[in-house]
Each structure stands twice: as C-alpha cells, then as structure tokens.
Amino acid sequence: MYTNCTTRQLGTALLALIFTLLTSMSFARDAGHLRYASGQADINDPTRVDIALVLAADVSSSISSSERLFQREAYAQALRDPRVAAMALGGGAGRVAIAYMEWSGKRYQRVHLPIRVMSTHAEMVQFADDIMAIPDRANDPMYLQPTAVGDALLAAETAMSALPVTARDYIIDISGDGVINDGSAILQARERLLGMGLTVNGLPIEVSAGAPSFEESPQQRVTRFYADCVIGGPGAFHLVARGFGDVRETLIMKLMLEMAQLTPTEKSRIATAWNAGDLGPVARVIPAVVLQLQPQQQERKRSVDCGDRQSNAQNPFRSNN
User: Fold this and answer.
1) How many other CB atoms are there within 10 angstroms of residue 279's CB atom?
2) Which of 182, 189, 264, 298 is the most buried (most CB within 10 A)?
3) What is the pLDDT of residue 222?
4) What is the DSSP letter of 205?
5) What is the pLDDT of residues 68-104, one digit of tens each?
6) Range of the domain at 193
7) Cα–Cα distance between 132 and 135 in angstroms, integer?
8) For the chain, how many structural domains are there in total?
9) Is residue 36, in this structure, part of any structural domain at all?
10) How many Å separate Cα 81 from the centre of its chain?
11) Which residues fall within 8 angstroms of residue 115, CB to CB, at 6 or more apart?
12) Quick one: three-class SS letters along 229-295?
C-alpha cells in the first residue's frame, strides 16, 4: 500500500514537472516575441504611423484639483502647438497615433481617449479639445489615491494594444510628481513592457512637497526615480519639469524630441542638456540647434531597488505618504 501510494505520488509529481517545463518553454517563446517591433514597420504599408504614443498623466492625491486641470491644459496646448504637429506629421508615413490616459492608485487607471490615428493638424487640435472636455468631478475617488506607477505602465500597454496599425516607434510617455507608494512592482512592470519592444519615457515634475526620506530633496528624488526605475527601451529619456508651471514647455520639447527622427544618442544628449538647464530660450524648442552640445556626461549610478522591496524601511522609493 505504501509503495503504491508513493508510486502514484511520484507519477503525479512527474506530470506536474513536465507541465511546468512545457509552460515555461511556452512563456519563454512568448517573452521572446516583440509585440511592438520598433523600426520594423513596412514602409510600403499606407496605413502605418510614424509614432504610436500613449500619454499617461498622474492624477493621484499629491496633485491638487487646480494642478490636475492645469496639467490637462498643458497637454492640450502642447498638442495644438504647430511645432509639435510639424514633427508628428513630418515623418515618412505622415501619420501619428496618440492615446491619453490618467492614473493614480493600483486599481485606478482611466483611458479617457483611446488611441487615435491622426494625419492633420486639425485632428490633433480636436484631440487636444477632447482632453479639455474630460469631465472632472471633485469627489471622484480616483483623485484620492496613492501612486501606483507600475500599474500605470501596465495599463498604458493595454491602451497601446488597441492600435490597429503598425508604427515606426512605440512609446509610453508617463508623467508624475511623486515616487511609487502603491501597487505592482515597478521593475517587473517596466521589464514586461521592454520585453514587448516598447520604449518608456518619463516626465518627472519636481515640486516642493513632503519630507525627504534620505539625503536628497523630494525634487531630486522623483527625478532619480524616473531616471533609474521608470524609463527604458530604445532611445529612452526623461525631461524634467521644474514645477507644474513648466509642464507645458517641457511637454512641447518632449513631444518634439520623441517624434524627431534622431538617433538615441542625439535624443539623450538633448535631454541631458535640457535637464541641466543648458539650453537657451530658442534652442529649448528647436532640437536641431542643440545637436552640437558637448558629449553627455555619465551620471553617478547608485544602488537602489526602486521600491520593489516594500519591507525595506530605508527604501527611498517606497513612500508611505
């Protein structure tokens, strides 16, 4: 009886092992498949777009109602800007696809404007008008939530997956004024998106709020979080907005840079100069002017866990605020 029981248990264990191995092999094949293959769109496909872009704006509890509305207005003004339209529609396809979503806590992501293919400035202006028409209710629980950046990235990928055509580049553009303090692990979410072929760019908004949890200021903390833990993929970069009053200008530059047909090195060089305040008032919105900047300096690397080890009381990126 003991032998029969042991044999059955071994047989069950062996079947479970075989199933696990087969599942792992299948997962590995899926993980190796680039769902969003940048640079591989068929140039003879008349339906393709140059850029597929998901704009993901933070509306968590750290952002006031006036800041939230100002942020939407900044996105709308940036998309209406003729310089942005010229870059967006000036590629080989002459078309762009954009979605707009807002996010806060782990269960709060809202795609207000599903991804839309546009080929004229008028269509981009209409998209901007639609952002301004988004209903805003003061008692909406979405605006009372913490900051779940990882879940925002996953929701942004879902929004991207609705794109019915191919693109030259696939970009998630996420903005926020704080570090992770809720939801899915940011590194796991980011690696999932990068494994699909997406690029994640960031727009950290530096504001003077909250107490620093280590030697850096709260402003420096959110910028380092986006640089170290959020952005990634081919040509990834972040541009820093020095407060909400700087969001519109930074968005204009960021959208132009994302849509420009520049090399990753050139984009990184421009972004580094912008963040250091090295661009003049004209060059800040004309990428071609700043290509002669000095070579990018290497930033000092620090060992961080990006908030994924929630039990670490000294973790700089797992805020309880």
Assistant:
1) 19
2) 189
3) 92
4) B
5) 999 999 999 999 999 999 999 999 999 999 999 999 9
6) 49-290
7) 8
8) 1
9) no
10) 21
11) 52, 54, 97, 98, 99, 159, 160, 162, 163
12) HHCECCCCCECCECCHHHHHHHHHHHHHHHHCCCCHHHHHHHHHHHHHCCCCCCHHHCHHHHCCCCC
